[in-house]
Amino acid sequence: MSKLSVRRFPYSEEEIASFEATLAESAIRPLQLPQIFPGIERVPVEIGAVDPDTAHPNHVDMLYIAAIARQVRARRIFEFGTYLGRTTYHLALGPDAEQVFTLDLDPEGDYPGLKLGIAVRTVLTQFQGHFFKNSPVAEKVTQLHSDSRMFDYASLAGSIDFAFVDGGHGYDMVWNDTRGAMTMLRPGGTVVWHDFSPKGADVVRFAREFSRDRPLFWVRDTSLLVHVDGLDAMAFEASLPPYARELIKPGT
Ligand SMILES: C[S@@+](CC[C@H](N)C(=O)[O-])C[C@H]1O[C@@H](n2cnc3c(N)ncnc32)[C@H](O)[C@@H]1O
């Protein structure tokens, strides 16, 4: 066994080509986070939101998610996929957050039909919601137990300010959860998806199709996609902040 456990992200040529083709051919607009949400660079988020075990090269995705929810002053939040509850906890810590719904499988259930990895099964049965359970914000969190394909989204129709899609990552599941998110979203609300990356072939395929009707932002150098209801990502007039790499070092 190697002495150093250096984690690498060896995207294959094929994965990178498919990802780049999707970006080139789809209504998915790569922008820096402060271009999509001007002023977000001043939003404070606890560094515990950073996920050191992420399977993505960029470890700040979850920090950005908590920052976006705070920037749009989300009061009612819905998360698909609780896992350890790290993101749930940091969403609930937001000063405007009143209620955070987080949906995951029931730890008592049996899911022979679902492809769940060893880490997901272990967390599901032993550590689900660890970060927010017994925390000062626990009362703001509503843990929902259901297979997301069975959940009654109509019961929350039009009432959610911010939805985070990060449950099952198969193509059909992402579509299912997205339809649920769109049902629950209030006018002007925000949806963020995780795992839009060369490794997330199903999410990439979903995004290519979804963006045909609703253009999306890709937060550059992350695996986050963003939809803001009422905002056409392609027509949106984005300015470069003065600290942008392109302005400081033209040609990069
Ligand atoms: C990537 S993890 C979520 C990570 C979490 N959002 C975070 O930011 O730390 C995905 C979660 O989705 C859950 N999941 C997978 N399929 C599901 C389904 N059909 N319904 C509900 N939850 C599901 C898994 O149990 C797992 O906890």
Question: Which terms would index this structure?
Answer:
252 residues; alpha/beta; Rossmann fold; eight-stranded mixed beta sheet; binds S-adenosylmethionine; single chain
Radius of gyration: 18 Å
Mean pLDDT: 94
Q: What small-molecule ligands were found?
A: S-adenosylmethionine
Shape: globular
Structural class: alpha/beta
Low-pLDDT runs: none
Order of helices and strands: HEHHEHEHEEHEHEEH
Tally of separate helices: 8
Distance between the termini: 38 Å
Provide the β-strand percentage band: 15-25%
Classified by CATH, the class is: Alpha Beta
Tally of domains:
1
**Biggest sheet record:** 8 strands, mixed
Number of separate strands: 8
Instruction: Give the CATH superfamily.
Output: Vaccinia Virus protein VP39
Strand arrangement across the biggest beta sheet? 1-7-8-6-5-2-3-4
CATH architecture: 3-Layer(aba) Sandwich
Structural summary, described in words:
With 252 residues, the chain is α/β, with parallel strands linked by helices. The chain has one domain (13-248): Vaccinia Virus protein VP39 (Rossmann fold). The protein is built from eight helices and eight strands. A hairpin with a 4-residue loop joins β7 (216-219) and β8. The longest helix has 14 residues, at 171-184. The chain is globular. The relative contact order is 0.18. It binds S-adenosylmethionine (SAM).
